[in-house]
Every structure is written in structure tokens, then in C-alpha cells.
Amino acid sequence: MTDQRCFILQVAVAAPLPELFDYLPPPQSTAPVLIGMRVLVPFGRSQRVGIIVAIAPASELTPDRLKPITQLLDTQPLLTAADISFLLWSAKYYRGFPGEAVFSALPTRLRRADRSINPPAPAIESTAIESSAIESTPIELPTLNTEQSAAIAAIHNQSGFNCFLLDGVTGSGKTEVYLRLIATTLARGGQVLVLVPEIGLTPQLQRRFTQRLNTPIAVIHSNLTANSRELAWWQVVRGTAGVLLGTRSAVFTPIPKLALVIVDEEHDVSLKQQDGWRYSARDLAVRRAQLADCPVILGSATPALESLRNAQLGRYHHLLLPRRAGTARSPQLVIADLRTQPVTTGLSHALLTRMETELNCGNQVLLFLNRRGFAPVLTCHQCNWLSNCPRCDVKLTVHRDIERLMCHHCGFSRPIPTLCPDCGGTDLRPLGQGTERVADYLRRRFPDCPIGRIDRDSTRRKGELERLLTAARLGEYPILLGTQMLAKGHHLPGVTLVGILSLDQGLHGVEFRATERMAQLLVQVAGRAGRAARAGTVLLQTRYPEHPLLLALLQQGYAGFAAQALIEREAAQLPPFSYQALLRADSRTSETAMEFLQQAATVAPALGAAELWGPAPAPLERRAARYRAQLLLQAPSRQIVQTVLNEWLPRVRDLNYPSQLRWSVDVDPQEGV
């Protein structure tokens, strides 16, 4: 490099600011200054850590306004120019801060001014496992069926970047397809990124990958210690781990030899970050594969309507796995009309009868109720008082295990009262049921059957979720009861009966995606039944057996439901036939939030084909003692949305608003619309 004093360093600073900052190189330094190095820079009256993202010949600022960086923190770059390009693109598209985006690619310790870039000592719960260390006997590969073989061949026959939608019914062997493709990629010297929507799905995939693949498997998710995540990060960055398995933030990890990207359960809303920088890990995975010029596979039994639309348009290759692998058969689906039969603690007579039959035959039963706690509300039978959250527009949930009322939105809690706070009455009653209450009833009804309850409350202790899932897979719990944590992707070969206690709220949700989410959840839960040689039955309890979308789902499967839903979306010009961005605001008063958004609407540029809807209160207006409102931008193309945002957001930043008001942008929102 020539004299570094002739260069300007553009630095992304670890601060919530929308711009990059120009600095001079360090004076009298002979060390090379390279893109991707961390630096310590003067920032206001303090020092901040930054990353060099570009080296320019000049700055728009006059030389007297530029300061030199204080210190180089690295002797070699931590990120490549390609990594930085992807990260800055991600920040620009989803309207995040460049510093936030760039530092999201680093482990926690390297986001600080720590000069050491040596990896930490291996932790006890090491996230990368040498497969050769645990292999004992060769594993006989399962025989592929025609559709699996065709899917693998279709992917192998394409070169460079291509996006494949692997649309396979539950139990169709999507993971086996992943394994064959990963093995081929590793044999060619490449690395693989595998994203899953939830932490609970990582143990079984890690176990299967470790048994089959001759490479360390690095795992990155938030439940691991910072030390373990950093160790896994180094194994990937240095190329010693061939596979990175992680949740959504793993999409930002530098992978020098990336040659294949897989997103499992691609439809899952958990792949979208819902606060702060609201990015979609699924869509960023597609972009990352495009930049790496490698294939990306989106797998699901219930593809998102956006993905199905992309397949219709030919943007994605649509690969179908329409039948279950091996000898497993698709389960029979039965409706239980709750209007016509007795119900005890949320369990219909028909469901209890079938449970007794299956349990007497030595089979496993899985019950799904997407509501944790004992009961969703406590009421006074004398004055009709309800356990409202003082900070949110929701009811406090009764948790008998810990004897508290809790808000599942803001975390507020209080002891369960013995007297009514309004009238002093003693007749306080829990209304409705959550998993805790149903489990209590089942223990009395089936005293000889151990019950495995899997929800956020029962799995708080470290390692408890994996322990429960392992025990469930081994058949130690004849009765499994859980929320959607239990519904997604888990292989439970002993389950022959799945009881879905209620999904009716999804049929009448206020958000336009409510029925899509309901259908996906129903099919995913149903897919836990009959995955081995024994046939399976799914019993769905509902008060709306004639609902047209439910009938389409039951009679034509998810494909029929999705086709009908896409017709309705097109008629209403809702996504995926349009594109959206939400301007969100929250404040201590509803008036302040609404006034800010009204001002924002007045400074919007010429919209052309775009539209502004609102402002309006958010579906859950008050949360954590703050009032939330939103303004929706909708347009027929992504490009129009981005063009409007480019001109609009600088004007919004220039508005005068109280310091206690917060606002953010959500591009391609998945909730709250």
C-alpha cells in the first residue's frame, strides 16, 4: 500500500446512526490498514469501536474536520469486502444502521475493543463436534424414493445461484435430501449454511448431521454461552467446520467457502426479526446465496405464500415431495365439532375416547394447545373483575406453578390475589385453559401415564428442552402436551394420535396472514402423527367446521388451501401481490404517536403507484406502558417501496418530535398488518 495518509477510511461505528464516518489513518503507523479491520475511533467526547468498510481517496469533508483513528485493533481483517457488501446491503434494504449490521457478523467479544483475536479456549458445551470422534459403525443410508432422487438431481443439474423451493409433506424426507446435498458440497471443498427458525430444532439436526457428515458441525444460537458461540464462529471463519447450523442471526456469519445455503421451515415467522433491526433471515439467505453464486434451498411442508408465488413466476424451482418417505402413511384428519359434545378442560369427549384407545395399545398421544400457563384470565364471579395487565391491552395469564399472574407481552407479574382487588370478594375463578391446566387434568384422568409438557415455562432451565424432546422421541412420555415449540419439525415415531385443542382464533384473526399461519400450524402439528410404521390420526377440535378455508385445507390439503388463499390475496392486492413497509411509532401517549405519524404522512414524497394507509393504532395498541401506532406504505414492487423510503426517511428524521417517542421502519412486515 502507498502512503496511508493519502487515504480516507470509511468506518461503520457501533452506534445507532444511519451513516458511515470518515477518518484519517493512524499517524506514524507502519501496520497495514485494511478493509474489515476493527479500529478504535474518537467519537464525540468518547471512543467507539468501528470497522473499516471502505478506503477512499478523498472525503466530502474538509481535512481539518477529519480525525485519525486512535488504534488498530486487529492485525488482519475479520470480514472480507464481500462480507461487508452483503451486510451493508442488508442494512440498506431493511433500513437498519450500518454499524449494527456490520457488527452483527461478529461474536460478542469482538464487538468490543478487545485487541486479542485469538479464539477462546474450547468450552465444555463445545458447539462444534468432530463427527469422527463419535462415529462407531457406518450408517446404512436410507433408500431414496423417486421424488427425493429427482429433487437431488434437479439441484445438481443447475450451476451457480438458483433458488429451490423443496415443498414436501411432513415426513417426506426433506432432511435426507439436505444430507445428500451437503455431503456432495463438502466433498467438493465447500461449506454449508443451514438456518432453522427456532433453537429447539437444532439438537436433532445436529445429531443427524454429526452421524452422517465427516466434518465438525458448528452451531450458533442465543441459548449458547458467548464463549461457545465465538468458538463456533472461529471454526466456520477458519474453514475447519464444514457446516454452520443456526437460527436467524447465523445468516450474517462470515463463511469463506460458502457453496450451499439451506433454510428449513422457510415459512416460519420466527425467521423474521420482530424488533430493532427487522430483517428476514430467509430472504437474506437467498440474497447471500446470490452473492456467493451458490444454490439455496427453502424447505417446508407448508411454504409461505410469498415463496409459492415466486415459484409460480419461475423465480424459484418448485420441487415436490408429495408422499412420506419409507412405509409411513399420511395421517387421517377427523373433525370434532365442539358445539355438539361435552368438553372437559378443553378436551372433547371424542378426543378423550380416542386417547384411551391409543394409550391402551401402547401408543403415544400428542396434544397441541398454543397457550401456556394455567388459564388466560382470572375473574371475580361476584363483580366480573378481570386480571388486566396494567401496562398492556391484554389479560394477565394465571400461572399456578409459580402462583403468579403474568403478562406474556411485557413481563409484568404479580402474586395471584386471594381477594378481588375491586370488591374484596373471595370467588376468584380462572377462565379457559392453558397447557398447565390441561396437564393437571390429564394427570388425574390418566394417573398411570407420565406426561411430558413442553412449553416456554417447562423448558426454562438450560438443557431441559433437549432432555424433554429426547425422552419424547424415546417414548418415555405416553402423553405429550405442548405449544408450537412441540409442533415444528420434530420426529416423534411413537405418536399415533394428535389432538389439536383449538386453532379457531386463527380463522378470525385481525391480521390478513392469520388464516395462513393457522393452516401452516395445523399441517405442521398434524405432521407429528404416524411418522413410523403405525398409522396416525389427527383430531381437530373446532366450533367452525364449515369455515370455507378450513374445508379447503381438509379436503384439498395445504396446496389447495394455498391456491385459494392466493386468489383472495390477489383480489385484495395484498402481499405477495404487493409489497409493504410499516412506519411504526410508540410513545407514552397515543396522541403523541399518532401526531408523529400524521406529520410523517405530510412529508411523504410523491407516491406514484404507491399508497399510504393510516396512521392507525397497532393491533395491540398499548404494550409495556407505551402506545403504538403505524403507517403503512404499499406498492406494486419492491423497487417502488425502496425508492419512496429513500426520499421519505430523511424527511422523517428531520421532524421535530419528543425525545420519549420512538420510531422504526419494518420492511416486508410479517406481523401487525
Descriptive report:
The protein has 673 residues and is α/β, with parallel strands linked by helices. The chain has 4 domains: 4-111, GIY-YIG endonuclease; 131-321, P-loop containing nucleotide triphosphate hydrolases (Rossmann fold, 3-Layer(aba) Sandwich), CATH 3.40.50.300; 332-374 and 433-568, 3-Layer(aba) Sandwich (Rossmann fold); 579-667, Alpha-Beta Plaits (2-Layer Sandwich). Helix content is 29%, strand content 23%. The chain has 16 helices and 29 strands. The chain has a 7-stranded parallel sheet with strand order 8-9-7-10-11-6-12, with helices on both faces. α4 (146-156) runs parallel beside α5 (174-187) and α13 crosses α14 (548-572). It starts with 7 loop residues before the first strand and ends in a 6-residue tail after the last strand.
Helix-strand blueprint:
Layout: E1 8-13, E2 21-23, E3 38-43, E4 46-56, E5 71-72, H1 81-94, H2 98-103, H3 131-134, H4 146-156, E6 163-168, H5 174-187, E7 191-195, H6 202-212, E8 217-220, H7 226-237, E9 243-246, E10 258-264, H8 281-292, E11 296-300, H9 305-312, E12 317-321, E13 332-337, E14 343-344, E15 347-348, H10 349-360, E16 364-368, E17 377-380, E18 397-399, E19 404-406, E20 413-415, E21 428-431, H11 435-445, E22 451-454, H12 464-473, E23 479-482, E24 495-500, H13 514-526, E25 537-542, H14 548-572, E26 579-587, H15 590-602, E27 611-623, E28 626-635, H16 638-653, E29 662-667
Parallel strand pairs: 6-11, 6-12, 7-9, 7-10, 8-9, 10-11, 13-25, 16-23, 16-24, 22-23, 24-25
Antiparallel strand pairs: 1-2, 1-4, 3-4, 3-5, 14-15, 17-21, 18-19, 19-20, 26-28, 26-29, 27-28
Helix pairs in contact: 4-5, 13-14
